[in-house]
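Researcher: I'd like a structural prediction for the single chain below. Treat it as a standalone chain; there are no partners to consider.
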Amino acid sequence: MHPGLPDVNQLEPMGARAQPNRLARATLSVFVAVLASLFLLFVVGPVAGLVSSGGVRGLSALARDTELRQSLILTALTATTATILGILGGTPVAYLLARRSFTGRAVLAALMDLPLVIPHPVAGIALLLVLGRASPVGSALYAAGLRVAGSPTGIVCAMLFVSAPLYVSAAREAFARVDARYESVARTLGDDAWRAFRRVTLPLSARGLTAAAVVMWARAVSEFGAIVILTYNPKVVSVLSYDRFTSYGLSEALPVAAVLVLFALIPLAALRALRHGDPAPR
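Model: Treating it as a single chain, here is the predicted structure.
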């Protein structure tokens, strides 16, 4: 035997080593599958239990419960208004963050994400501090006939504050996915910056912007913490659900909460429809 080669009599057969490896991989796969199943059950189970317990009662209550019906309409209107305001104000900010490099860009991006990490009751307190009647801005708005706290305007402000960062973040990604060279080509053909944006960037990013708006609307619909601080009355559905729970108990809160969950499924279904044509990940 060559002195540099191992003794063939001491080598393990390949089949003997492969068998424990296959067993280890199978055990790991089963462990990961169990973890994933428990996680899915944890996420889906409470929602499924809520809908199965109160969904039918909630839908039937829509016909006779005037307060629930009005709160649902108020939720839809205020969330839609907040989303429109978010689109109008957030789209230029998202484009700026995606396309321009300037001093303070990282700070601006961090500031836009700040409402996502603030506890929402704290966000409500901050809004009340700035827009309440005791503040200079709030008193000036009140003198001009615009009441913020305790009105639908306050609900819109709370929804806008907590959900607009989601739109800006997603819109920024949508703009970043559009190749900047397309805009450069349009500029060389005589388009100014605005015309290149309108004719090239906006159509190419429209799908991502629409998805961003849907996510913002869904987040606005489900907001509770900031709204309950700024405007308890009139009640949106999330506040009405809390009010029924604290006033009458779980049985009366279930139908309202189930209706809110079913209502939230509308934008989720719309979002999945938008992404229906996306290529499946490999």
